[in-house]
Amino acid sequence: MDAALRAFVRERAGRRCEYCRLHEDDSDYLSFHVEHVVARQHGGSDDPDWLCFACAECNWAKGPNLAGLFAGKLYPLFNPRKQSWKRHFHWDQTTLVGKTMTGKVTVQVLNINDPSRVMLRENLLFEGRFQLDE
Ligand SMILES: [Zn+2]
């Protein structure tokens, strides 16, 4: 993957994680990744339609996963290239809530409401750098 493709994916996302919406400037210590929405081992590629911009924590937690279990049933993870973030998620203060089964399993598998991540969002909210309507 070349630098131009990375830059395209990064700018298309507005430099925000396409899962948890964290802005790249608000992550103190970890650089963001260009993530394969569908991992290569599942047939994904470096085509921009298969890539998204993700914070390190979302990317590491997602790994090659494509789905998550909820009450014993398998549901697909959120696909930022094919689905609307607002249709699947909303904020309850600084906690991300899944509106759909896809939203719920994505929050769970990507560990988006880990206490340290909620605390980071609370600090950003306090500093006026976290917008709940995004
Ligand atoms: Zn994220």
Give the N-to-C terminal Cα separation: 29 Å
Low-confidence stretches: none
How many separate helices?
5
Provide the residue-averaged pLDDT: 94
Q: Any idea what the radius of gyration is? A: 14 Å
The spatial strand order of the largest sheet comes to 1-2
How many domains? The number is 1
Strand content: 15-25%
Total DSSP E strands: 6
Overall helicity: 25-40%
What hetero molecules are bound to the protein chains? zinc ion
Provide a descriptive summary of the structure in words:
With about 130 residues, the protein is α+β, with helices and mostly antiparallel strands. It has one domain (about 5-125). Helix content is about 30%, strand content about 20%. It is built from five helices and six strands. It has helices at about 5-10, 55-60, 85-90, 100-110, 115-125, and strands at about 35, 50-55, 65-70, 75, 90, 95-100. It has a two-stranded antiparallel sheet with strand order 1-2. A two-stranded antiparallel ribbon has the order 3-4. Strand 5 (about 90) and strand 6 (about 95-100) form a beta hairpin. It is globular and about 40 Å long. Bound molecules: zinc ion.
